[in-house]
Amino acid sequence: MINLLSTGKSWYKRFQYDEDVDKPGDVRNILLIVATLIASVTFKAGVTPPDGVWPDDKDEHRAGQAIYACKSTAYYVFLLANTIAFSTSVLVIISLTCRFPFQLEIIIATISMIVTYGSAIFAVTPNELKFRYSMFAAGVPFIIRGLIQLFNVIFRSNK
């Protein structure tokens, strides 16, 4: 490894995925770990927003709403990006655990986690209309994956 650093060779090329060397099961396990870490971090960030929540009711806010929501644009950029990252990682987890033992239980737990995330976001987001945007954002990765699958089916059947 020290030799790798001293020769100036790119360290990231050494650790890149190599289809001829890496086993599919090992790759799946690594992807599951990465997706689970992303889901965990984004779930936590969503249910406990930056700066926390207001402890009391005032004219401009309600107790339990995200303090960060006062910075409206920044909060909604955070919320949309976080929700897209969360739902994408959930999609990867569902895809990689297909046909696993206890698949039904994994799906039930995953759906419950999604509902919990959505209800927590709803509770801390002051504007219900903007909450709808974040729920639409949650569906974007699933829509894109579905369109890619449909595209592949259509063009494979034409060959």
UniProtKB/TrEMBL annotation:
It is found in: Membrane. It is a multi-pass membrane protein. Residues 26-121 form the PGG domain. One of its GO terms (cellular component) is plasma membrane. Keywords: ANK repeat, Membrane, Repeat, Transmembrane, Transmembrane helix. The chain crosses the membrane at residues 30-47, 74-94, 106-125, 131-155. It comes from the Eukaryota. Pfam families: PGG. This is PGG domain-containing protein. It comes from Gossypium darwinii (Darwin's cotton).
